[in-house]
Amino acid sequence: MRKNRMSTSQYLGISVCLLGMLLSGCSNPEKAKQKYLESGQRYFDKGQYREAAIQFQNAIHEDSRFADAHYRLALTDLRLGQWSEAYQELSTTTQINPDNYSARLELTKLLISGHQYAEAKNQLDSLQQKQPNNPDVYMVLAGYDVAVKDTGAAIAALRKALQYDPGRSDAYLSLGVIQMEAQQWSEAETSFKQAADKAPKSADPILALGNLYQVRGRYPEAEQTFQRAIKLVPDDPNPRLALAALYLAENKRNEAENLLRNAKNDFPNNSFGYRLLGDFYWHTSQFDKAEAEYATLYRDHPKDPIVKGNYVQLLILRDHLTEARKLDDELLKEQPSSSDAQIYKAEIETRSGNANEAVNTLQAVLKNEPDNAVAHYQLGLAFDQLGNSSRAEAEWRETVRLRPDIVEAHRALAGVAIHNNDASFLSQEADQIIALVPAAPDGYLLRAVAEYDRKQYAVADQYIQQSLEKDPGNPAAYVQLGNLRMAQNQPAEAQKAYDQALSLDPNSAEALGGVLNVDLTQKQPDKAIAAMRAQLAKYPNNSDFHVMLGLLLQEQKKDLAGAEAEFQQAIKLNQNNMNAYLKLGMLQNERGAPDAALQTYLEAAKISPKEVSFYLLAGSIYENKKDWEQAKQLYQKVLAIQSENPVASNNMAYVMLQQGGNVDVAFAMAQTAHRQLPDNPSSADTLGWAFYHKHVYASAIDLFKEAVKKRPESTLYNYHLGLAYAKSGQTALAQKQLQQVEHLKPNSSEADDLKRTLAEMKGQS
Fold it and tell me: Residue 63 in contact with residue 79, Cβ under 8 Å?
């Protein structure tokens, strides 16, 4: 007979189950995941997205293939701006449930925003087959067509969406935007009005209509339309912002300011609303007022993280770094893991001259958030301060890859293009700036510079005129116009442009430099000097003007004493005028007073300790004195600031070889320098000298020959080449180099040393 007895393992299993039921009440995974899903949705509906995400993640923990939870977590990630996480969750959703067409549409939108157009098109083709009557599919298709710049297809897609849902306001709104960009003004106006009719409680179509009126110069209609939007949604600050922008376009700054001051009072609990006035001051470059306003906002809303963050950024912009650091420390104390606060910290470090610390801070941010575009941009600024231009450029390129809308990164890359004389790259970046901020004058001016460099003068002229349309009072545009007229051999027209620039900014060194250049080109140095003195008589405290007069006296009149007096006066007026120190030191060296030049460079280095050029110049003087230790110390200072500075690496390598230091270390530094300065004869000579000390004479000879070819008058390079020939047994060639050294510098120590080396090699043969 079989006994129905319970085994020990069965008993323990039931006990554990009962215990779990008592503790959690969720022994059923199906019920548990549904409970988490419903809880997450309640949080989502209340706008508590982080709490919602936790609950959706709990549901997924219960069932990793719970497609609905993955989808809702994706929607939550989208609300939180976590694009990569949303992409992953949407991908998982569609893998589990390919028939979730809403998820596929959201995934397609992300693909479009990420410029993954081929994958987006594949999704759209499939969706059109599966859901040919779904207006949402055609809405997303229109977005794709806009991204690939097919305006006609985008309009057709929106009309298709309206065919299946004629009451769809957002389709009319999108249609109007595209028509407006295509300059189909009457069609766009009709579309915006239809959008407003379909959604009478929405302000968006009305704002779009007002914007159209503003663009077309129909200012009274635009104002009436924005006022209509304000009445429709009195609790929304956006219509007031639109009206303020209209007032600015009409040059009614007082009306805009008063409107936003009232808005601040009308929105005491709306962060966007009460920040409008401070942001207005900021974006109209009224920085004193902006700082005062944000100080008040911080006092009244100390817990508002946006106010605090904006205030920190404004203080950084104003170089009030002590206050910015104090405020950012508060942010970091409240939110230690805040990437924004860490980035502010790094920006403060960069501006304080501590770029190495900024690099460490930003790299820590990017370790956790590799796609943080702002961190990449700031890291580029830090590398730029360290003299690592290649790393800076790489970071800025990564910035615009991740966030093409960051205009400052495009401006930084435009600066790189100008430095590299790359007109094509400059043109590309200028176009990006124009697309992002079409009302700003600088994009057009940069494009003009690119066309000027290509000698496309007519096109450059057009872009300069466009820049002046945006800002008729910009002296930089007139300077560039003057440069263009000079290139076109129109000195009289160039003079007019430079004079216009100077009238707009009488202290502009660039404008005055253009005026002087016209005179010098026409072989009238006395006229240039007279013009310089006349402007200096009006503005005697302009330090840069004294430098310019000094250069004229030095170069045109060979009046070195007069030039030196002007450089000294420039420094007296402005001790931070590093260009004046530079010109003074170079002049003193030219006059045969290296000790005075050395003193000038060292004084400048004390005032501007992060400016590496003075250490390099002082180091070269010590090198000429054969004071290797002092030179080495100065080059070490450069490398402490800019670890990959090629000139310092080159000079340090040479000094180490002269001192009898570690040849392998010197060789590595010389290689680094020559790699970064491939066309520089000094880097070729130093690397050759390193090969010489490693007894690799064939390589040394090749490099010395390269240096001599570029600088045949250099005694040092010819001397080194002679030594290498002698050591390699090529006596005849060494003898020829000896003759060249004696010709360049008779009775020199180099000639004597080369003779001794030749004698030694003959004795060994």
Answer: no
User: Measured in whole angstroms, how far is the alpha carbon of residue 549 from the centre of its chain?
Assistant: 35
- Check whether 5 has a pLDDT greater than 70: no
Number of domains, the chain = 2
First to last CA, the chain: 114
pTM score above 0.85: no
Half-sphere exposure for 225 (CA within 13 Å, toward CB): 23
Give the residue numbers spanning the domain of 450.
405-465
The predicted-structure confidence for 484-523, as pLDDT tens digits, reads as follows 999 999 999 999 999 999 999 999 999 999 999 999 999 9
Q: Which residues contact 348 (CB under 8 A, 6 or more apart)?
A: 316, 321, 324, 325, 328
Question: How far is CA 424 from each of CA 417, 447, 484, 555, rounded to the nearest angstrom?
Answer: 8, 10, 18, 34
- What does the block give as tokens for 196? 């407003």
Among residues 403, 429, 451, the one where a domain terminates is 403
CB 67 within 8 A of CB 55: no
| Both tokens assigned to 492 | 């009289």
Instruction: Output the pLDDT for position 387.
Output: 77
Q: Are 42 and 76 in contact (CB under 8 A)?
A: no
The alpha helices in 539-645, defined as continuous H runs, are: 543-556, 560-573, 578-590, 594-607, 612-624, 628-641
Q: Which two tokens stand for residue 472?
A: 């008729």
Band (pLDDT 50/70/90 cuts) for residue 679 is very high
Hey, what amino acid is at 217?
G
pLDDT in tens, 569-602: 999 999 999 999 999 999 999 999 999 999 999 9
Close Cβ partners of 400 (under 8 Å, ≥ 6 residues apart): 406, 409, 410, 413, 432
Q: What is the CATH number of the domain that holds 410?
A: 1.25.40
